[in-house]
Structure formats: structure tokens, C-alpha cells
Amino acid sequence: MYHGVLPRTETTPAVLRGNIQADALERHLQWLSRYARVLSLGEAIDLIRSGERAPPRATVLTFDDGLGNQAQFALPLLERYRLPATFFVATDHLRPGRILWHNRLVLQAVDEAGIGRGSLEALRRLRDWVESDPNANPSERVAQRYGLDVASLPVWERLRIATQGMSTDQLLSMSRSPVVEIGAHTVTHPRLSTCSIEEIDRELTDGRRTLEAIIGRPVRFFAYPEGAWNDRVVQAVRRAGFQAAAAVEPADGPLEDLFRLPRLAITRGSKLRMVAKWAGLTGPIRTFRRAVGLRVPTAPG
Ligand SMILES: [Zn+2]
Q1: Kindly report the CA angle at 116 between 99 and 150, in degrees rounded to 5?
Q2: Could you give the 3-state DSSP secondary structure of residue 106?
Q3: Distance 188 CA to ligand 1 centre (A)
Q4: Is 223 helix (H, G, I), strand (E, B) or coil?
Q5: Helix%, strand%, coil% for the chain, nearest 5
Q6: CA–CA dist 301, 298 (Å, integer)
Q7: How far does the centroid of ligand 1 lie from the alpha carbon of residue 247, in Å?
Q8: Is CB count within 10 Å lower at the N or C end of the chain?
């Protein structure tokens, strides 16, 4: 599971470290194209359904949110290495000038605290504030406090690239690529586990309908925003007619549960780190580092 893909540069705000730089992504894809067997999500699901054994080192690539930078930087790399991937797109930020609430908080954090580590703390404070009222729609809450208009914030190209959604043209041309499948990711990217059933249904059906109207083909797969699901949410996703849904946790969940497909978050650039995680070594490496008294690195956000 990847998120944003950014062009290479020396200065990356701390709050953008959940994104990967394009050259690092290329090294990952190069490695995967040589040593892994990258399947499309659809192929993987057919295999799971059939009960057949997956080929050794079977791997599925997904990119969340539907950011413009994914169309710009991830798509050409996937096409170069001929690796299939699924992009889960939240539809609210397909509209020009709109930005998803968690990216609005990223901009706000940098505005308040600059690009250093302070921005991470500012972001944590802002997210705590959003979560202090878990039942409120975070998108509305953020818009009410900070406005929808991001034009007032300092324009820094890197932040714009990191936070802007795809255009509908980008989405359409991505959907036409033979290596791409488009999946749904709601409209406003709420934590569905805190939504009413009406809100859940609306987020699921409106998001999917918008995508299908743009790309002109059925959207089969879904990913839970923020990885947040509960039984009610899973039922709603099934009811909405999706064939499978990608979660994050539990990372070691059974693959047979098509509506809680576990994923590994790849947030750092290092190929070694990606490979370790991919190979399931992250847990043992952490235990080892702790045992020999080394500092255990923790990922931000
Ligand atoms: Zn997301």
C-alpha cells in the first residue's frame, strides 16, 4: 500500500514522509519486477476464490486516495515495468480546488509550524482535534474551521503536488492504462466506523457512482479510508456490491476474507526496508533491535 509519490528533492517536510519519492518507488518496482510476481488485485482475488495456491512471492500493488502525483509519477513507472496496480480514489478531491481533509491538515500544519519536525507535532495536534469528536464528519469539521479555500496558504509547489487530487482527465487516462484498475475509496474519506449507516451508504454509493460515470466501467473493489472498518461497515461494503475490500489491519489476517484484505503500508523510501517488510521480516528485525538495545525506528503518523 503506497500513498503519494513525490518528485525527488532535498527538502521534504516532516509531515510528507508518508509519501515516497519517485526515484525510490522506481527502485522498489525494479526490485519487485525481478524478484516478485506482481499480480493485479483482480487476479489475486480470482486465485483466492478458486482456492488455488498463489505463485511464490505473489504481490499486489495498491495506491490510496487518488492524488494527482500518482497519475504524474507512479503511472509512468508502472507502465515502464509493466506492473499492474489498483488505485483507490476518493472522489471529493477530483473537483478542482478541493482537497481531502487530512491533506488540508497537512497544509495547515506546515503553515503553523514550518517544514521541520514541528510540523509533525502540529499535525498530531490537528488530528487529535478532529478525533476529539469522532462522530462528526471530519471533512465538514475541517472545512468549517479552516475553510475549503487553500489559496490563502503559502503556495509551495511541493505541498501542492503532495496534496492535490487527480483531475478527472487524469483519472480517465489512468483508467485506460492496461496496468491500472480503479477502485473506490468513498467521497470525503471519513472514518466509516464512526459514520451513521446512511452516511456509510452515501459515501459508498456516491463515490462509486462518480468514478463509474467518469471511467465508464464498473468499479469492483474498495479500500477503507484510514483503514477503519467494523462489522457494520463491512456489511455495507458487501451490500453495495463490491467484490472485495482492502484494509490495513490486521496485517496477518487471513487472505480468504475478501472484505478485510490485509495490506502492508510502505511509507519509507529505502528499498531494504520495503523488502524487509514485504518478506515479513519487520517484526523479527524489531525484536532483534530491541534485544540488542538498538533504537527501534517508528514511522511518523
Ligand atoms: Zn486513504
Answers
A1: 20
A2: helix
A3: 10
A4: strand
A5: 50, 10, 40
A6: 9
A7: 10
A8: C
From the list 103, 120, 62, 114, the residue with the least C-alpha distance to 298 is 120
Give the C-alpha separation, 66 to 169, whole Å.
12
Q: Are residues 226 and 238 in contact, defined by beta-carbon separation less than 8 angstroms?
A: no
191, 138 contact by CB (below 8 A): yes
pLDDT attached to residue 149: 64
- Which has the closest alpha carbon to 270: 82, 59, 14, 27? 27
SS3 45: helix
Of all residues in the chain, the percent with pLDDT exceeding 70 is 89
Distance 186 CA to ligand 1 centre (A): 9
Q: What is the pLDDT of residue 288?
A: 59
Question: What is the distance between the alpha carbons of residues 59 and 61, in angstroms, rounded to a whole number?
Answer: 7
Distance CA 176, CA 54 (A): 27
Cα(73)–Cα(85) distance, integer angstroms: 13
The distance in angstroms from the start CA to the end CA of the chain is 15
Q: What's the maximum distance between 2 C-alpha atoms anywhere in the chain?
A: 56
User: Average pLDDT for residues 147-152, to the nearest whole number?
Assistant: 66
> Ligand 1 centroid vs 266 CA: distance in angstroms?
13
Beta carbons within 10 angstroms of residue 147's beta carbon: 12
**Three-state DSSP class for 289?**
helix
| 273-287 mean pLDDT | 71
Ligand 1: distance of its center to the CA of 205 in Å? Answer: 17
CA-to-CA separations, 19 to 51, 67, 122, in angstroms, rounded: 35, 11, 18
pLDDT at 299: 37
Question: Does 30 score more than 90 pLDDT?
Answer: yes
Report how far ligand 1's centroid is from the alpha carbon of 293 (Å). Answer: 35
Alpha-carbon distance of 135 to 162, in angstroms, equals 27
